[in-house]
Specification:
521 residues, 3 domains, eight-stranded mixed sheet, 38% helix, elongated
C-alpha cells in the first residue's frame, strides 16, 4: 500500500500564499478583462498614484461575511476594495481603490468597513483622502447591510468636509447611491469613455421617461464636466487622471490647520509684465481672454484651471505667486461678456469656499458687466444662486485681493470680492469702469427727457454717454471713496500682488461665535 506524503506549509509560506492570493484579486481572467476595457486594476492605480514603494496596505485579508445567494462559497481576500496609506510628493495621504475584478467592485459591509477605517485614520491624522471609484454599486445580495455601509461612508465624508481635502477619481461606473460620496468630496476627476456617474441608469430612465440614452450621454465625463458641473476635471485616460489629481495636491495643504504650500522662489529682480498693458482692448465692448492676464501675473506655467469646460464665463483655478499657492477667480469677457449667471455663481462659490476652508489666499480678476438677464435665469433662481457667490466671499477669512481690469457694474461689482464685503486690498487698472451700469444705459435713464426732446436725439445721447463716461466710467470716484486702494499700471500688477499677499500672510479674523451660517443652497 502506497501512502501520499502531505506537505505541510510553514507559517511564512502560508503568509506568502495568502499575499499572492490577495494580489491576484478576482483572478487573471478578470484582470485581463479590465485591461481590455482600457482600465487599470485597483492596485495598478495605487501604484501610479503614490510615491514609489510608499504604499502600506490595511485590511488585505478582510473578506465578506455574507452567506445568502451562494456568497458563502465565493471569497476573495481584501474583498472588493484595496485600502491603505502612502505618500504623494513626500506627503502623507490615505487611499481606497475599488476593485472591479471582485464582484464588480460592489460595496459589501466588509468593503464599507475598510473604507471607513481609512477615512477615520485620515481625519485623526490630518491628511488628504483619495478615493478611486470603480464599482457596480451596492452588493445586492447583502440587501440593507450594503446600504448601511454607504451611509456610514457618507457620514464620514461630511465629517471630513473642510477638515481634510477629499479627492475622488471616477475610473469606471459609479451609479445609484454610490454617487453621493464623491459628490460630497472637494474635487471629482473623470475619465473619458470609461467612467460615468448617474443616480438612475439608462434602463430606469427609459422605463420612467421613455428616453433612449446611453451611459456615456447620460453621465459620462464630457456631460459632467461641461453640462452638470459635477466633474471638475475630465481626462482622456486613467494615467492623465491620476497625474492631474497629484497636481492638485501641490496647491493645497494637508488639512484645515495648515497654511497653503509655499515653495522656494528666487526673484529675477524684474517682476513687471509689460504685455499686460496691451491686453485690454480700447473698445470696452471688445472681448479678450482673461487667461492671458492670469498667465502673466502668476509664476510661469503654474496656473491650473479647475472646471474649465463648465460655466466658461468665469474661471477658477490654482496658481503660484512668487512660490505662494493661491486660488484664482476671474470673470471671462471672452464668454457671455463675463456676465455672472447661475452656473458661474455656483462654480465660483464652491471654489471660494474650498480655498477658504483650507487657507488658500484668493485673487480675483474682475471684468463683469452684471448678471445675465432673462426669464430662464430668473425662473431658475439667479437670485439665490447669485447669493451663493456673495455669501462665499463674505464668509471667507483668507487673504483676499481684487484687481478690476475693466467693467465692474451694478450688484456684480459688489459680489466680485469688493471692499464692502471684506476684501483686504482692491486694485484697479486705469481702464476700469466702476458704476451702477454701462454709460449708454445710464444716460438713457438719467437724461431720457433731454434726449427725447433734442433735435438730434442720437447726437444728444452720445453727448450724454460721453458725459457719464467721463464722470463715472473710471476707477477714480471709487478711489476717492477708498473703495479702491490704488489705481495701478497693468504691468505693475504682479509686483503689487506679491507684496500685498506677503503683507497679508499673518491675517487673522475672529468671526462671531455661531454653529454655522445658512448659505442659500
Amino acid at each position: 500500500m502506497q501512502t501520499t506524503a502531505i506537505t505541510k506549509l510553514s507559517p511564512t509560506e502560508i503568509l506568502e500564499k495568502k499575499n499572492a492570493e490577495a494580489l491576484l484579486a478576482g483572478g487573471q481572467n478578470r484582470i485581463d478583462a479590465q485591461h481590455k476595457k482600457g482600465k487599470l486594476t485597483a492596485r495598478e492605480r495605487i501604484e501610479l498614484l503614490l510615491d514609489e514603494g510608499s504604499f502600506e496596505e490595511i485590511g488585505k485579508f478582510v473578506v465578506h461575511r455574507s452567506k445568502d445567494f451562494g456568497l458563502d462559497k465565493e471569497h476573495y481576500l481584501g474583498d472588493s476594495v484595496v485600502t491603505g496609506y502612502g505618500t504623494i510628493h513626500g506627503r502623507l495621504v490615505y487611499v481606497f481603490s475599488q476593485d472591479f475584478t471582485v464582484f464588480g467592485g460592489s460595496l459589501s459591509m466588509a468593503h464599507a468597513e475598510k473604507v471607513c477605517r481609512i477615512m477615520d485614520l485620515a481625519m485623526k491624522n490630518g491628511a488628504p483622502l483619495i478615493g478611486l471609484n470603480d464599482s457596480g454599486g451596492a452588493r445586492i445580495q447583502e440587501g440593507v447591510v450594503s446600504l448601511a455601509g454607504y451611509a456610514d461612508i457618507f457620514y464620514r465624508n461630511t465629517q471630513a468636509s473642510g477638515l481634510i481635502p477629499q479627492l475622488s477619481a471616477i475610473m469606471g461606473p459609479c451609479a445609484g447611491g454610490a454617487v453621493y460620496s464623491p459628490a460630497i468630496t472637494d474635487f471629482i476627476f473623470m475619465v473619458e469613455n470609461t467612467s460615468y456617474m448617474f443616480v438612475t441608469g439608462p434602463n430606469v430612465v427609459k422605463t420612467v421617461t421613455h428616453e433612449e440614452v446611453s451611459s456615456e450621454d447620460l453621465g459620462g465625463a464630457s456631460v459632467h464636466s461641461s453640462k452638470s458641473g459635477v466633474a471638475h476635471l475630465s481626462t482622456p485616460n486613467e494615467v492623465a487622471c491620476i497625474s492631474e489629481l497629484k497636481r492638485v495636491l501641490r496647491y493645497i495643504p494637508q488639512n484645515c490647520e495648515e497654511i497653503a504650500p509655499v515653495y522656494p522662489y528666487t526673484s529675477s529682480g524684474q517682476e513687471t509684465r509689460e504685455s499686460l498693458n496691451s491686453i485690454v482692448p480700447e473698445n470696452p465692448n471688445q472681448p479678450y481672454d482673461i487667461r492671458e492676464v492670469i498667465e502673466q501675473v502668476v509664476d510661469e506655467s503654474s496656473f491650473m484651471e479647475i472646471h474649465k469646460d463648465y460655466a466658461e464665463n468665469i474661471i477658477v483655478g490654482f496658481g503660484l505667486l512668487a512660490g505662494r499657492s493661491i486660488g484664482i477667480v476671474a470673470n471671462q469677457p471672452a464668454h457671455l461678456a463675463g456676465c455672472l449667471d447661475i452656473n458661474a455663481s455656483k462654480k465660483a462659490a464652491r471654489f471660494v469656499r474650498f480655498c477658504d476652508a483650507f487657507n488658500v489666499p484668493l485673487l480675483v480678476f474682475e471684468d463683469v458687466p452684471g448678471f445675465l438677464p432673462g426669464t430662464e435665469q430668473e425662473w431658475n433662481g439667479i437670485i439665490s444662486n447669485g447669493a451663493k457667490l456673495l455669501y462665499a466671499f463674505c464668509e471667507a477669512t483668507v487673504p483676499r485681493i481684487t484687481v478690476i481690469t475693466r467693467k465692474a457694474y451694478g450688484g456684480a461689482y459688489d459680489v466680485m470680492n469688493s471692499k464692502h464685503i471684506g476684501a483686504d486690498m482692491n486694485y484697479a487698472w486705469p481702464s476700469a469702469e466702476i458704476a451702477v451700469m454701462g454709460a449708454k444705459g445710464a444716460a438713457e435713464i438719467i437724461f431720457r427727457k433731454e434726449i427725447l426732446s433734442a433735435e438730434n436725439p442720437e447726437a444728444k445721447l452720445q453727448e450724454k454717454v460721453d458725459e457719464y463716461s467721463q464722470k463715472f466710467a473710471n476707477p477714480y470716484k471709487a478711489a476717492q471713496r477708498g473703495y479702491i486702494d490704488e489705481v495701478i499700471v497693468p504691468d505693475q500688477t504682479r509686483q503689487k500682488l506679491i507684496k500685498a499677499f506677503k503683507m497679508l500672510e499673518n491675517k487673522v479674523v475672529n468671526a462671531p461665535r455661531k454653529k454655522h451660517g445658512n448659505i442659500p443652497l
